[in-house]
Amino acid sequence: MTEVESGDELRFATGMSELDRVLGGGAVKGSLVLLGGAPGIGKSTLMLQICQQMCKTCKILYVSGEESARQIKLRAERLNVSGDNLYLLAETDLDRVQEAVHQLQPDVLIVDSIQTLYSGEQTTSPGSVGQVKECTMTLMQLAKGEGLTVFVIGHINKEGSIAGPKVLEHMVDCVLYFEGEQQMSYRILRAAKNRFGATNEIGVFEMQDGGLIEVPNPSEALLEGRPVNAPGSCVTCVMEGARPVLAEVQALVVPSNFGNPRRTSNGFDYNRAMLVLAVLEKRGGLLLGNCDAYINVIGGLSLDEPAADLALMIALASSFRDKPVPGDLVAVGEVGLTGELRSVNCLGQRLSEVRRLGFTKCIVPSRSSGKLIVPEGLELIRVDNIRQALAAIV
Hints:
By secondary structure, the chain is of the alpha/beta class. 29% of the residues lie in helices and 27% in strands.
């Protein structure tokens, strides 16, 4: 171990700061990055757009098994992507891809997609478990053996995970998921695995006619168009990696016309939402057992952090009582089964982001770990349990 040389990874910018943030500061030479997402979400668009900046300093080979070279050229013209160092190859045979790599000696290899490649050593059809595993192993050997940075696009199945064997995610260095609703313009790039940086970092993009546009301030974008004095809406602040992001949680509670009330959740973990509903009825005194409850997180963001519990509870209570939450208020806190509020991490960073966007009140648990510096102009409402929170707001 002591004889192995170590040092900083050789990183280079991809031309998109949001992608660089998710990768941990840029792409690493000799790494294998897997990008997954739903059809039409913008995976190929993102990969083609980063070629515009990278081809100024790197030689890039773009391999597509789904489009012809002419189709890629037409898409590149629409995205204003051009460069003498960008080479196109429409091929699905892995052996021919290897020959092109050895002949061209590129710095970056982009494969769209791994499910279309096939190896002659396997008798199964392209996209099968054996083919995907064999092709990924060959690409990994290319990346590590020749110091080649490889970006691989992968399809996802109906469960939302990357199609193919689970070992595929273990083999690569980084696993990125491109998320978002096709009907909405915002896209979220999330790191599920990263050997060269932090996981759960996100990058936010907006899909426009000319391609993907970076959103450096996602909080403002996610809160754009927020209704004023509308019951059932509350803002919270969650941590996405090292970045605090403000998100709007909406809830609609109406009397049920059926024996079994209907409960739906979009962007918020369903089991977590049912937990908050049960605590709100048992500890908060709101009779929600005969009501339908619809929960939605604006902007296509998925909240899986317990710090969003309090905002959901307040939005549900606001809709049930038909009383709006003050527009300048943010709620941050974890709700326990006994109705108590638990402290959350990185509260200081969250409060700074809350104040920066113009909010003047923030309801937080009365207990907080460490010394807390409250930004000037921000009023903290400290509460011990959900009854105190509801009494202070709705």
